[in-house]
Design a protein that fits this description.
Blueprint: E1 2-8, E2 17-20, E3 29-33, H1 40-51, E4 69-77, H2 78-87, H3 94-109, H4 120-134, E5 142-150, E6 155-156, H5 161-169, H6 177-191, E7 192-197, H7 203-207, H8 212-217, H9 220-231, E8 233-236, E9 239-242, H10 243-261, H11 280-292, H12 310-331, E10 338-344, H13 352-367, E11 372-377, E12 390-396, E13 403-409, H14 424-442, E14 447-451, H15 454-463, E15 469-473, H16 477-492, E16 503-508, E17 526-533, E18 544-548, H17 569-582, H18 586-593, E19 595-597, E20 620-622, H19 630-639, H20 641-653, H21 664-673, E21 695-700, E22 707-711, E23 714-717, E24 722-724, H22 733-744, E25 749-750, E26 756-758, E27 763-765, H23 768-776, H24 782-785, E28 786-788
Parallel strand pairs: 3-11, 3-12, 7-10, 10-11, 14-15, 14-16, 16-17
Antiparallel strand pairs: 1-2, 1-4, 4-5, 5-6, 8-9, 12-13, 17-18, 19-20, 21-22, 21-28, 22-23, 23-27, 24-26, 25-26
Length: 791
């Protein structure tokens, strides 16, 4: 991915600036925010100048061309790099390329890198990078490398230049600068694909399927299949010959006959380059180009692109590009390198009601499909709704008119809002309020749930699935209340009228102290409530209530409640067991071993109430050794919220649902939104394409000689597989029950290895994780455990 870039002398950037584009190791989404004319687009354009060898450098009027450059700092996962080198024959001298990355990464791990650079501007830019790298997590998993292009079009290393070269000369035997630059440049261009969609580019040009950029984001399996066909052998004149070689032979024969006819002439056809034959890669692009040149995108009512409004055209660009990238993510093999997508102002010409959904689609390219995604925007409404990623704010210094750039992690940017220029925070809520009101007015049957954070949304989306419900995290309780008041005001003043079917739930936690919630009285379509776990059934016959805080006569019962306290206890226990087992914290493992499940159906573990006579039940109890140490488990849950939410979601979605015992939180949401049947049904294992009888075999990569097979969408541990007879108490209950049946079977065979058993028959499993856990007796990550056995 791109970590950041150094830029000097391009458009409004008159001096060297380091711009951070990735401050969150867990997300590849970056939004560049600012008013028109401040230099947002220049960032994406300058990256395009390097990657796609654009000829025009838009020089800053106060800069000297020879001093201008853009240099990009890349970070690449070591495993992905190794896999890419292994699987790509186009990269020459792979060992040398790897040594470049190893030593360049060492250079960026050096302490006080900035002292080697002369000049205040260079030194300050390097210091900013140095400070950022120092605080970066998981650096050991990545290689770092830099390369760029100067204003005259040459590949360059500025501002690192001689300092980096001197360092590399001391580390690499017979280091050659030109060889280093050309080798690294070739690798970067092979590994990364940068797709940039500017505002002014014509929609029909962007979406034309023969467009080179569209071909680059197309599922690579298409081009691979064309190559495969061209390389297939056919029988001709008693010989087996590939289609491509047959074409070469026929064309060569034709050229020979032409030259024979020119015997009496002083002219002849001869090759101009060393290359004499056409190869498959020459034809693939031409075939795709010619085939798709006859296909054009239209609306389903057959309206041509050029007949649509500019807003509809912009929406088409985003929907088609995201569709292609999703298709590629689902169907393509690994080790093809990385695609980086950059879109200028996706909200341009959009109806305000569509803006939120457009940003949601683009953010999902990173969060769901792993593509690094850059956008520029001056729609401030994205601030409260993006949970992970990097926010880069570009603005003008009012006194000097120089560009100022600040970058924040979306996860905690609200903690630093005092550093924001002007009134960005307030603008963001005005924009978002307008967008949400527009969305509701255009979708009169739809409901919204506004919650505090991304983990709340993850839990809710694992339990709720309905096409007319959107769940939106807005960055904390204070923001939920602020949006409630801002949306309430125009409705109460009758400036805006919502349909009676529109419902919005504003959902917050209940803290351990009573709060003056300071919210308006709610219009009929709005409901603001705090989560409350109860110790007796509510008036709605539920153990959970969402207490209306805009109604002074609502329940005064007040027990500290987070969303983690009102989940399915069985699933939450399995998720918590898994996360604890894979952690390196031995204390939490020891404490958790002492706790066991109660028969309480909800997941609350701690009890705190203003009225101690109203403490709810808990889903864990101590066996005796750590009866006063519940707070250690609570603290672990609080510090692993994101990981727990992700694991819980995976486990819950695959669980068989008991529709006679729906989670009380889901029932409360149905009551407030006045909807039925919103519970997510069990997600079947995804099976690409139609069901077939093809069987895939996987083997374990650990000390056990175990095999798993996938057959017609089902997963089995195979007969003869070894499993450990030892078991951690924190594994999932389902896996533990399956293992007990195996171990208690009198006929089970013993392995020569100590404490290892051998399966006497195939065993059906719920998932790959389930199969891995049965083998090892501990929570195990299937992605790291199973390796596909090639036929």
């Amino acid at each position: 991915m791109i970590k950041g870039l150094f830029i000097n002398g391009y458009k409004s950037y008159g001096s060297t600036e380091y711009i951070s584009l990735n401050k969150n190791v867990d997300s590849k989404f970056s939004a560049i925010l600012g008013q028109n004319g401040v230099g947002k687009s220049a960032i994406l354009e300058s990256i395009d100048y390097y990657f796609n060898e654009k000829n025009y450098w838009n020089k800053n009027k106060n800069s000297t061309l020879s001093d201008t450059f853009v240099t990009i700092l890349f970070k690449i996962e070591k495993k992905k790099f190794d896999d890419f080198l292994r699987d790509n024959d186009s990269i020459e001298d792979k060992d040398l390329i790897k040594s470049y990355l190893i030593e360049t990464s060492r250079f960026f791990s050096e302490e006080k890198m900035a002292v080697h650079f002369k000049g205040v501007v260079y030194s300050n830019a390097i210091k900013n990078l140095e400070k950022e790298l120092k605080s970066e997590r998981e650096k050991e998993k990545y290689y770092y490398l830099v390369l760029g292009r100067n204003g005259t079009g040459e590949i360059d290393l500025k501002p690192f230049g001689k300092v980096l070269e001197y360092f590399l000369k001391s580390k690499i035997n017979k280091f050659d600068r030109n060889e280093f630059i050309s080798g690294l440049n070739k690798f970067i261009k092979e590994y990364y694909t940068y797709i940039y969609i500017p505002v002014e580019q014509k929609t029909s040009d962007v979406l034309s399927l023969e467009n080179i950029d569209m071909q680059r984001i197309m599922n690579k399996d298409i081009s691979d299949n064309i190559q495969k066909i061209l390389n297939e052998r056919v029988s001709r004149e008693g010989k087996n010959i590939s289609v491509i070689n047959l074409l070469n032979d026929r064309l060569r024969s034709f050229m020979i006959s032409i030259n024979e006819n020119l015997d009496d002439s002083e002219f002849e056809y001869s090759k101009d380059r060393k290359k004499e034959k056409i190869v498959t890669s020459d034809l693939v692009g031409l075939i795709i180009q010619e085939y798709f040149s006859t296909k054009s995108l239209k609306k389903k009512n057959h309206t041509k692109m050029e007949q649509l409004s500019s807003g509809e055209q912009r929406r088409a660009v985003i929907e088609v590009v995201t569709s292609f990238l999703k298709n590629r993510a689902h169907n393509s093999q690994l080790n093809y390198g990385e695609i980086i997508i950059a879109i200028d102002e996706p909200e341009i010409s959009q109806d305000i009601s569509n803006v939120y959904s457009q940003f949601e689609k683009l953010e999902s390219l990173s969060s769901k499909y792993g593509y690094q995604t850059f956008i520029t925007t001056h729609w401030y409404g994205l601030l409260p709704i993006i949970n992970n990623g990097t926010l880069t704010v570009v603005y003008k210094n009012k006194s000097t008119q120089n560009n100022l750039v600040q970058s924040f992690d979306f996860h905690n940017y609200l903690d630093k809002k005092e550093e924001f220029p002007d009134d960005i925070h307030l603008k963001s809520f005005y924009d978002l309020t307008s967008s949400l009101l527009g969305y509701l007015r255009n979708n009169i049957e739809h409901r919204l749930i506004l919650c505090e954070g991304g983990t709340d949304r993850k839990y809710l989306e694992s339990m709720i699935e309905h096409p007319k419900i959107k769940i939106l995290p807005v960055g904390g309780k204070d923001n939920v209340k602020l949006l409630f008041n801002m949306i309430s005001l125009p409705i109460k003043n009758k400036t805006i009228k919502l349909h009676e079917n529109n419902k919005v739930l504003f959902l917050i936690d209940t803290d351990n102290v009573a709060d003056n919630y300071d919210v308006f009285n709610a219009p009929n379509q709005l409901y603001i409530g705090r989560l409350q776990v109860l110790n007796r059934l509510s008036r709605y016959n539920s153990w959970v209530e969402i207490v209306n805080i805009s109604n002074s006569s609502s329940s005064k019962y007040h027990n500290e409640t987070r969303i983690e306290d009102v989940l399915d206890a069985d699933v939450f226990y399995d998720a918590l067991s898994y996360v604890i087992d894979i952690s390196k914290d031995e204390t939490i493992k020891e404490v958790f071993e002492d706790f066991e499940r109660t028969n309480w159906a909800l997941s609350n573990i701690k009890s705190h109430s203003i009225d101690e006579g109203h403490l709810p039940r808990k889903f864990l109890k101590s066996k005796g050794n750590f009866h006063d140490q519940e707070h250690i488990i609570s603290a672990f849950i609080a510090s692993h919220k994101t990981e727990l939410a992700s694991v819980y979601s995976d486990f819950y979605i695959k669980k068989d649902k008991d529709f006679a015992n729906i989670n009380p939180l889901v029932m409360e949401i149905e009551r407030i939104l006045k909807m039925k049947n919103i519970l997510r049904i069990k997600k079947e294992e995804e099976n690409s394409g139609e069901a077939s009888s093809v069987t895939e075999i996987f083997y374990s990569n650990e000390k056990y000689n175990s095999f798993m097979k996938k057959e017609d969408g089902e997963i089995y541990l195979m007969k003869g597989s070894e499993i450990s007879s030892e078991e951690k108490s924190s594994i999932t209950q389902i896996a533990s029950q399956t293992r007990k049946k195996i171990i208690d079977n009198e006929n089970v065979a013993k392995s020569e290895k100590e404490a290892v058993l051998i399966l006497e028959d195939d065993i059906k499993c719920k998932s790959e994780n389930h199969a891995a856990t049965i083998v090892t007796g501990r929570s195990t990550n299937a992605n790291e455990f199973w390796r596909k056995k090639e036929s």
